[in-house]
Amino acid sequence: MTRRTVTVLTAVTLALSLSATGCVKAQAGAQCRSTDWGDDGSSVLRCERGRWVRKATKAQVTELIVTLLRARQTTQTGFPAQPSVPGQNVTFGPGPAVNPDYYLKADTIQAIHVLTADGVDNPTVTQAIALDATLIDDWFAGQNDGRRLRWVRNGPAISVVTVRVSQTRAQLDSQQHSAVFDGLGPLMVAAGVVTRGRISLVWIDAGVPGSWPCGEGSAYQLNSLSSGLAVNYMASCGIRPGMWNGGIPYLMVHELTHALGAVEGAPPQGCAPHRNGGHVGDDPRDVIYEGTTGRDWDNLMLDPGHDDYFKLGANPLGCRDLAAHPAWM
Ligand SMILES: [Zn+2]
Prior knowledge:
The protein is α/β, with parallel strands linked by helices. The protein is 23% helix and 19% strand. It has two domains: 6-62, Archaeosine Trna-guanine Transglycosylase, Chain: A, domain 4 (Roll); 68-79 and 87-262, Collagenase (Catalytic Domain) (3-Layer(aba) Sandwich). The strands form four sheets. The chain has a six-stranded mixed β-sheet with strand order 5-9-6-10-12-11, sandwiched between helices. A four-stranded mixed β-sheet has the order 1-2-3-4. It has a two-stranded antiparallel sheet with strand order 7-8. Helix 1 packs parallel to helix 6. Residues 254, 258, 278-279, 288 line the site of zinc ion.
């Protein structure tokens, strides 16, 4: 999925800036340092190139749909030293613009259970997510000669963080899925669970059958700190963690493949020859196959032909190759 609504991002960012604690006192035009958000009592401002710039009135901001209530359980014991990957602003225009920088920043994956305001915090769901994350990890390792993706861990176990958002299930479901998708990255950043260089893997109990997709994934994020997002909308299709009987959690494997960069944006001329939108259409074994026949569920692979996005070999055209993604340890 590559749809993006810049206005939604701006709105969400503003909403978050208001909900953040310790909002900086600001005055339009006054000098400032940093890129902080500020507040002059009636408007929200941002420090840009050394001056405070008014971004929206508070009345506008209070109308915004997504706000963060609180984040909990951000345990990161055992997490290796945070890699020093500097974030930078990535701007996406209308339609998918390619900024290759995203590719160099996302080197760690965080599993996240997002609860709605009225959602029940059921520990068995979190446990099921942890199990799925392990299966996802194993599947990707099997695709890359045992090389594993880097996850935020609690000791040896993959960490699953739970975040509760301020909206009810009904409020989320009344929105376009794309608005929720675009809001999730910034929310996770504001919740403190996603920092620079992390890919968010989100299981959320929201979604409208028949109108929302089962999941979405994209390496493109409307927030410079969040470097890739894969979402399982559990209520859309009834696809939930723990339902795979030890098999491959297909949905999240598929969405994570998108979040790692396959096959979005505009690859260089001649790259991803079997591209079909954000998918590929040549081989039903491909985990992001979308074509005229059914998927080969028993033999799912990353780019089995090694000609579209994974293990491209000599790669004379310099095409984007998931095997070179920094999330591999
Ligand atoms: Zn897809």
